[in-house]
Amino acid sequence: MVRKNLTLAIVKKFIPSRKSISRKGDNGIVLVVGGSYIYHGAPILSSIAALRCGTDLVYTSVPKINVTPTRAISPNLIVIPLVDQKLTRGAVTKLLGALPHNLHSATIGMGLAIQDKNALLYFVKSLLDRDVRLSLDASALIPEVLPLLANKNVVVTPHAGEFKRLFGESPSNSKNERIKLVEKNAKMHGVTVLLKGATDVISNGSTTYLYEKKIPAMTVGGTGDVLSGLVAGLLSKNRNALESAAAATFINGLAGKSVQKKLGLHMTSMDLLDEIPIAMKPFDKIV
C-alpha cells in the first residue's frame, strides 16, 4: 500500500493542461443531481464549484419546486427540472432522455430526496453504461449501490456517518484506524473512497492520499457540496477517479485556508466558491 500526503507538486500532475484551440465542451461537461424542498442550496453549491474549477458546461437537475430559485441564483446554470419532488423512476427516465449524449461526469445526492431506492440504482447504472464518471454523496450513499460501482470511475465522498451507512462500519477517531478502514473498503468494493474529516483520506485500495486540513471554519454547511462539485468537475477532465478526488480535496482545502485567513471563523460556502479560481491558478496550464 502506497501512502502519501498531498502536496502542490503531486496535485499538479493530476490536473490536465487546456489546449489553446479547445472549444466549448472540450474541458468538461458535468451533471449535478440534487436538492429537495428543504435543501435547495446544495446542488447550487456543487454546480458553481464545478464551473469554478474550469468546467465548460454544468447541467443542474433539481426538483421542479426548486427550479426558479436555482435559476435565479446564477445565469451560468443550465437547469433541468426533475418532474417529481423526489427521485422516482419516472423522474429518472425523463431526465435520462433530456441529458446531452457527450456528458463526461456527474455528481449525485447532495440534498436529494429519494423516494424510490431502485430509481437511484437504475440512474447510476444507466450513467455508468454511458461511460459517465460519477461522484456520489449524501443520500446516494446507500449499500445497495456498491455492487454497481466495482472497478468503475466512481468516487464516493462520505463523512463518518455516511461511511457507516454505506459500508456498515464506523470510522474511529484514530487517524491510523480511519486510514486502514478506508483502504480496506476501497479495495473490497473496487471504488475510490474520499472520507471527509479533519484529515481527508482518499484511497482506491492500493494508493492512499492524505490531506490534513486544520481549517475549523470549514465545518459550516455546504463545504461538502462544494467538494462534490469539484470532484465531478475534475473527473470531467481526468478519468482517474483517485487523482480527481485527491485534487478536489486539495483545492477545496486551499480555498478554505484562504477564506479562513480573510474572514476567520465566519465563512459561508458561497465564500469558498469565490476562492476556488485563486486556488486553481497554480494548476492552470495552456498548451
Automatic annotation (TrEMBL):
The keyword ATP-binding applies. Catalyzes the dehydration of the S-form of NAD(P)HX at the expense of ADP, which is converted to AMP. Together with NAD(P)HX epimerase, which catalyzes the epimerization of the S- and R-forms, the enzyme allows the repair of both epimers of NAD(P)HX, a damaged form of NAD(P)H that is a result of enzymatic or heat-dependent hydration. Homotetramer. One of its GO terms (biological process) is nicotinamide nucleotide metabolic process. This is ADP-dependent (S)-NAD(P)H-hydrate dehydratase. Its EC number is 4.2.1.136. Its cofactor is Mg(2+). Belongs to the NnrD/CARKD family. GO terms for molecular function: ADP-dependent NAD(P)H-hydrate dehydratase activity; ATP binding. Residues 7-283 form the YjeF C-terminal domain. HAMAP family: NADHX_dehydratase. It comes from the Archaea. It catalyses: (6S)-NADPHX + ADP = AMP + phosphate + NADPH + H(+); (6S)-NADHX + ADP = AMP + phosphate + NADH + H(+). AMP binds at residue 224. The gene is nnrD. Keywords: ATP-binding, Lyase, NAD, NADP, Nucleotide-binding. InterPro entries: Carbohydrate_kinase_pred_CS, CARKD, Ribokinase-like. PANTHER family: ATP-DEPENDENT (S)-NAD(P)H-HYDRATE DEHYDRATASE, ATP-DEPENDENT (S)-NAD(P)H-HYDRATE DEHYDRATASE FAMILY MEMBER. Pfam families: Carb_kinase (PF01256). (6S)-NADPHX binds at residues 42, 111, 159, 225.
